[in-house]
Amino acid sequence: MVDHIGLNVQDLAASIRFYEAALAPLGHELGSHDDTCAGLGPKGAPALWLYAARSAQGVQGPGMHIAFRAPDHQAVDAFYQAGLKAGAKDNGGPGPRPDYSPTYYAAFLIDPDGNNVEAVCP
Question: What's the predicted TM-score (pTM) here?
């Protein structure tokens, strides 16, 4: 059901240290990371993403991010249309995301509480 989750954190470096140590015994490791985010999970397949909650200018980031796995592109499209009709706000229409991976197809919505909700067919 869940493909990946993103959490906003106040201290990215401290959170990386914690999650890297706590998840290592479970077989998970630090994957990609930069100054704004880090992905942890099985080797080559990060499923927990940590995001710096505040920028250098002190701007609060968006709420939590959760991505639901979809069986195909049509399901991603249907998720997006149904969500808009139910009152969500557009945060990126259905389509390929080649910057994520060559086959990544997703749509993004902002739910009524400000959370970034995604449907993805990886």
Answer: 0.70
Per-residue pLDDT, 38: 94
Render 95-113 in DSSP notation, one character per residue. Answer: EE-TTT-TT-EEEEEE-TT
In the three-class reduction of DSSP (H, G, I as helix; E, B as strand; rest coil), residue 92 is classed as coil
What gap in Å lies between CA 104 and CA 122, rounded to an integer? Answer: 4
As given in the structure block, the two tokens for residue 57 are 């200018």
Q: Which of 45, 21, 19, 51 is nearest to 33 (CA)?
A: 51
pLDDT along the chain (122 residues), means of 10: 86 89 86 92 91 61 80 94 90 95 93 82 88
Report which residue type is found at 48. Answer: L
Residue 74's identity, in one-letter code, is Q
Question: Would you state the pLDDT for residue 59?
Answer: 47
Give the max Cα distance, the chain: 43
Question: For residue 74, what are the CA distances in angstroms to 70, 78, 85?
Answer: 9, 6, 17
In this prediction, residue 73 carries a pLDDT of 96
Half-sphere exposure of 80 (CA within 13 A, CB side): 20
